[in-house]
Amino acid sequence: MTRRKYVGMDVHSATTVIDVQNEGGKTVGTSTIETKTGPIKDFIRGLTGTIHVTFEEGVHAAWLYDLMKPLVAEVIVCNPKHNKLIRSGNKSDRNDAQELAELLRLGSLKGVYHGDCGTRRLREAVRAYNALTADCLRVINRIKAMYRGRGIDCSGTEVYRVTHREQWLDRLGDPPAMVRLGLLYQQFDSGFIALWGSCQI
Question: Distances from the Cα of 75 to the Cαs of 56, 145, 149, 201, in angstroms?
Answer without folding.
Answer: 11, 49, 55, 48
